[in-house]
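Feature request disguised as a bug: please show the residue count (453) next to Phenylalanine--tRNA ligase beta subunit in the output. Example input:
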Amino acid sequence: MRVSLDWLQDYIDTSDISADELAEKLDLSGTEVENIIKQGAGLDNIVVAQIKKIKPHPNADKLVLCDTFDGKETSQIVCGAKNMKEGDKVALTKPGAKLPNGMEIKKAKIRGESSSGMLASEIELGFGEDASGVMIIDEKLKPGQALDKALDLSDTILELEITPNRPDLMSMIGMAREIGAILGRDFKIPSIKIKESDKAATDVAKVDIKDADLNPRYIAKMITGVKVDESPQWMKKRLLAAGARPINNLVDITNYVLFETGQPLHAFDYDLLEGGQIIVRRAKAKEQMTTLDDVERKLETDNLVIADKKKAVALAGVMGGARTEVNDKTQNVLLESAYFKPQNIGKTSRSLGLISESSIRFERGIDPNNTDYAADRAAQLMQGVAGGTVLKGSVDVYPKPIKERKLKMRPARANSVLGIDLPAKKMEKTLSSLKLDVSLSNKELKVSVPTFR
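Example output, currently without the count:
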């Protein structure tokens, strides 16, 4: 688990504590900090530049010569991309720069023409998946600015080892809650404000759970009229800090909310779902499906799948299917937020050799009563970032709600077992700081354990 300290400030203020101090406090509380990373440190000699003139290469039809201004001087760069035009702001990697993939930039002659660096693509800079051309950046940025400063890439990241019994820590909000308890500070979560249409989600989407023992809760939310595009820079930055590569705004939003809340989500292209229906069932004998990695999978009958009226379209809790994935033409999204039985997801993930950020969280156990918040949060972002219209309400199938566990604890007994002498009031305060509902009466603590634990 990677925790961006810059992102963390959205939920709790730790600006007065150094990364080393925070790491020490986490270590002492039982959450091991494996590494502290200074992000942006590997982007030396990469600056914002402006293309002043583009000329044909005299000796190569597929190359061009770009006169590029870096704030001080204009240099010639040989480039093979076709997506830029004169006046564009780009990322110029100067001689001496070393890219995240290990490539070292040097002055060179390419087909007889000198090149004083390289105009880099997103994938070469480690900022995304786009390798189709050079990365075009905000026209408001000034030539000569260091790229990490111009794009606000500087950050400190804590790499944590999360033990299997603490799935509640596998999110930014979960870590904010934990750090709040350690520091004795309040934390906050984003408020949800969505402008919904008059049309209801239940009018267009249907959910049928055939195996409720493996899928106790399934929420489908509908967002229509979305525009697929690249994500805003602030979202890209946070996904990169979390260890994920930006893909497009819809996919990025589902990943963003996963890292923020701990709830895995999946976005289906609604128009590619046969009958506009979700059916949650076990795989049929000899059933096959192609997953998002373009691998055809042979399924077993104990694998849980998400299907439409025709066939399986996703491996529940593990990976989506290629047939219904969002693409450049997607306009309408059915957003899945669900709770699946941990043991089944773990077995499916291991049997197929598919380990994902989603499967890890489902296998360890997520909060079944957080699925609605995560769905609303993603819908809020899809409305704001992708221009979608959110249909009223959602399809929420939850036949047997999972409730909080009630426990009793005797402070005297706890002190005897632990060999300490902690007052009952202190125990009550400590448990309450972890957002457990605690009451003390007749020398006994009554504790309601929330479903996120």
